[in-house]
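Issue 218. Parser rejects a valid record. Input:
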Amino acid sequence: MKKYVFKAYSKIFPDLFNNEKNRISSQINLPVVIEHIGSTAVPGLGGKGIIDIAIATDRQNIESISKQLQALGYEFRPNFSTPHRHYFITFLSDPEEDKRRYHIHLTYAENEEWKNFLGFIDYLISHPEEAQEYAELKRKAVLEADEDGQRYRTIKEPIFEKINAFINKTNNHPKISIYIAMSIDGYIARKDGSLDWLERGHVGEEDYGFKKFFNSIDALVFGKNTYEVVSAFEKWPYTGKKVIVLSSTLKAVREEVGLFCGQLPDLLSRLHSEGVKHVWIDGGMTVSRFLEAGLVDDITISIIPVILGDGIPLFSVMNNEKICRFISTQAYPSGLVQLKYEVIK
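Output the parser choked on:
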């Protein structure tokens, strides 16, 4: 059977991934994040039809989870692994084929490979024209490689370099994302800053993509008001992430938090020099400041099915309009609707 055969996208790919994700989750007794990567994770994108799965865990859990995956029937391939990523393969029964190939890439969230896995898929989903270009390149690679794996990868290399250059920007600031929830009438908090109404958007274990997003960021930036709300939480929610508070009046903050008072480009240049590649911006005033400065790359808004009537608005007054390109929308059983946009600068 030929290894390199171009196959059309199938609508069963998401279900195949979710079924295997559930099987893996039920057998692994350590904290993990499991994501669908590779061509089968991009709607409409053809490829080899392999279900590629990325798993992130704490570094100290890698070896233990590796053994658990092998107990599930996955074969560890050391020749295709690295010191920071373990690679596994298996074949499972399939409704469209006799057996389908599954790959697992086991790593830790701080590894650049993990961030590139997620960033690559997000890029293709939000840039359909380049996804089509990638599909055509894969088709060409299958025809010209003649079962030569190295040749197959070499043909695809140019588009990998192009997309990874976008993901890992070489300019003087990291990627900037707004990821925020609001009420139907446009408020992100009550007048007193309370967020109790957010619970109306939660049903069961659904996290609305938050875990995936949180694992993709290196740092958070928000203002004094947001800091005062989250610092009152029983448990600090941003462990392991760099946190910067924008304030000229705060005199003291938690040990793991930094203060900044100055120009936003200077802050981003500093974060860039520290190796930060993806920043989450939160809080109404902070969101508007970054938008006004033309520094935001994308926006994800989760609309909670509640009308507050009054509160703190998502956007404060700005002096210029911003044009956005629609990426996607998703509705959940809870009534929450999530909208994603790319900001056109």
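Fixed in the parser; the record now loads. The CA atoms of residues 12 and 95 lie 9 Å apart.
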